[in-house]
Amino acid sequence: MSALERLGLAALHRIDPETGHGLALKALRAGLGPKGGPVTSERLRTRVAGLELPNPVGLAAGFDKNAVALDALAKTGFGFLEVGAATPRPQEGNPKPRLWRLAADRAAINRFGFNNEGMEAIATRLERRPSGGVIGLNLGANKDSADRAADFATVLRRCGPHLDFATVNVSSPNTEKLRDLQGRAALSALLDGVMAANAGLSRPLPVFLKIAPDLSEAEIEDVARVAEETRVSAIVATNTTLSRDGLTDPQKDNMGGMSGQPLFERSTRVLARLSSLTDLPLIGVGGVGSADQAYQKIRAGACAVQLYTALVYGGVSLASEIAQGLDRLLERDGFASVAEAVGTGRTDWL
């Protein structure tokens, strides 16, 4: 991390978290972020669900909800980007305050509730996206929708032509009853609709499914079966958790989904279990804040990883640091590629 980035983070941490996040996006758009582009090497290049990635370290959804900083983010070290979540109609989300930094735990709690400018505004920005990168969109549903399952397909039809992949997000804890769509019957019906919409695109996309870390063993098994039956391309494991295990920060009891370091173990165990149930590619998310943690996710069964909350504490340059460190760890252990390392440490997490 540069001295300028360190000073910027220190200043942002002195103000309201959501305001600070908005200023961070503005700083990126003003050209104050990294400019080197994705970190890559023969060892880091990998293929996930048909996507050619320069490295397996991705930006998770939520950092750039409205796709306003695509050009700036394309110049960072990330191997791929996911923006959103996008809903058919704009919505304000839940009342503020709705984001808390838990500095003592290197974590965050949010209850945003899919606040975004809607698919039309986001699609317009995606139409002008930078060339050459891998960019996906997290699909969401409006809180007051009469048919939430249909909302996912609606967003995909509108934005799909400008994307490399799309992620069905039924795992946010901040939209009432959204997680109910993770049940086997509801999830199957929802994904059938999304896959039908995807088949109707002139260029069908890899469709990912993002799940919660709070599923039971039986629910994890159901997710794996439904994902295979509906032919999604990958599973993203996991979203934020409602658990407060391991938290010490005074703000730990605020309502919402918790992300960051305390989620690492829980999410990695779900990832490893899924890896033992399905051959679908898995994207490991939750608590990734270092090259070693990215490597552990990969060895637990992930083909690629994503991060977001760690950027609050490590800055956007963290993506390059993690990718470079991952390259060294793979070389140290004799792996010629990311793919060779996938799942080699799964049993440590089961």
Describe the fold and architecture:
This protein is of the alpha/beta class. The protein has a single domain, classed as TIM Barrel (Alpha-Beta Barrel). The protein is 36% helix and 16% strand. It has twelve helices and 13 strands. The chain has an eight-stranded parallel barrel with strand order 3-4-7-8-9-10-12-13, surrounded by six helices. The protein has a three-stranded antiparallel beta sheet with strand order 5-6-11. A two-stranded antiparallel sheet has the order 1-2. Strand 5 and strand 6 form a beta hairpin. Helix 5 runs parallel beside helix 6. The chain is globular, with a radius of gyration of 18 Å.
Produce the secondary structure layout.
Blueprint: H1 3-12, H2 17-29, E1 46-48, E2 51-53, E3 57-59, H3 70-73, E4 80-86, E5 99-102, E6 107-110, H4 119-127, E7 135-139, H5 148-159, E8 165-169, H6 184-199, E9 207-211, H7 217-230, E10 234-237, E11 257-260, H8 264-277, E12 282-285, H9 291-300, E13 304-307, H10 309-314, H11 318-332, H12 338-341
Parallel strand pairs: 3-4, 3-13, 4-7, 7-8, 8-9, 9-10, 10-12, 12-13
Antiparallel strand pairs: 1-2, 5-6, 6-11
Helix pairs in contact: 5-6, 6-7, 7-8, 8-9, 9-11
